[in-house]
Design a protein that fits this description.
By secondary structure, the chain is of the alpha/beta class. The chain is built from 17 helices and five strands. A five-stranded parallel beta sheet has the order 2-3-1-4-5, sandwiched between helices. The chain starts with a strand and ends with a helix.
Length: about 350
């Protein structure tokens, strides 16, 4: 059996990609069956590194930084104890003596019960915010399918689709998680077991994109169905925050232009300019960092208790963002300093 994972930032199109793959007879895929597994593993690692953050899966920026090689090493030796298994509701059949990647494979098979047939070649799942695990999975022969989307549409979709993402987070937090996701795309773009797609290409050119994806997985071409089925056999209606439909539509692309004001768009463009340009997204009206901070007001009320109301403009976060931008003009920087702000040296060099 071959194994794979679909991941990406919330509201980036992971569910649509999952539903496309679910239609294929060679593929068994579950939708977010064990998010607590990844949270538990990352929490244990953070504890070992004395890292404190709002969520176990964090921005890896500034004081949340850790060496990726250390995390990969941790995963290669991670063992699940009885308390961890019980607290997270994992299947009792999981083996304690198995390391992370073996536990991952077990969970894919468990989640695929009733879906796996004699035709099944791949067993996998879709989980958001699992970029940190990409390196380890790839090293152990697991394919990773990674989707990214215009951050401005992500921000609007997250705020307007709270039933999918929970309480509203500060804009800057989502920006940082988006930039992190893009960094992983850059870092692993050349790996033969890694495939990344933009949401916009998936919905505008689904047939061509699915043909490319089938080639990556070495399976017969994925037929573009007029309507998609979910894992319960029902016709799936998109979980779009804009327009729910049984049909695949590109109408949500660029919706942010109708929702966000000019100052907010400028804020995002300025903080994400290198990433936006790298991904060929429209990026104009870039301003001085201090100017965008001075004129910024959260477009959506923050109702998430774990975040400060001024997170997006606080003095501490302004300092971090100004330093991050300034590093692109520097020279002779240490590996650690580069990765604390750009995730990987390769990302820094490209920008």
């Amino acid at each position: 059996m071959n194994f794979f994972l679909i991941t990406g930032l919330y509201r980036s199109g992971t569910t649509l990609l999952e539903k496309f793959l679910f239609q294929h007879p060679s593929v068994s895929i579950a939708s977010q069956p064990y998010p607590s597994f990844y949270h538990l593993v990352k929490k244990r690692f953070n504890e070992s590194q004395n890292i404190s953050s709002i969520y176990p899966i964090n921005t890896r920026l500034d004081n949340e930084y850790y060496e990726m090689k250390d995390f990969i090493g941790f995963l290669n030796h991670f063992r699940l104890n009885e308390a961890g298994k019980l607290n997270s509701g994992f299947e009792s059949s999981l083996h304690f003596n198995h390391v992370f990647v073996d536990l991952f494979k077990q969970l894919q098979l468990t989640a695929g019960k009733g879906l796996i047939t004699n035709e099944t070649i791949y067993a996998g799942s879709k989980e958001i915010l699992c970029e940190d695990f990409i390196g380890t999975l790839l090293e152990n022969g697991v394919r990773v399918i990674h989707i990214v989307r215009d951050p401005r549409d992500v921000l609007c979709s997250a705020a307007l689709g709270k039933e999918y993402t929970g309480k509203t987070r500060p804009l800057l937090y989502t920006i940082r998680m988006w930039r992190k996701s893009v960094a992983f795309r850059i870092q692993y773009a050349a790996h033969p077991l890694y495939y990344s797609v933009r949401y916009e290409d998936l919905v505008k050119y689904p047939k061509a994109t699915l043909k490319e994806l089938a080639g990556f997985m070495n399976i017969p071409e994925i037929e573009l169905q007029p309507k998609l089925l979910d894992q319960q056999g029902n016709i799936w209606k998109s979980n779009s925050s804009f327009v729910q439909s049984e049909l695949i539509s590109s109408s949500s692309i660029g919706k942010y232009k109708e929702i966000l004001n000019a100052n907010t768009i400028s804020y995002v463009n300025t903080l994400c300019a290198p990433e936006l340009k790298y991904l060929d997204y429209e990026c104009d009206d870039i301003k001085d960092l201090k100017e965008v901070f001075d004129g910024f007001i959260e477009p959506f009320p923050i109702d998430h208790d774990l975040f400060q109301q001024d997170y997006s403009v606080s003095e501490m976060n302004q300092t971090i963002e100004i330093k991050r931008a300034g590093l692109l003009k520097g020279a002779g920087l240490s590996h650690k300093e580069i990765e604390k702000y750009y995730q990987f040296e390769l990302v820094y060099k490209i920008f």
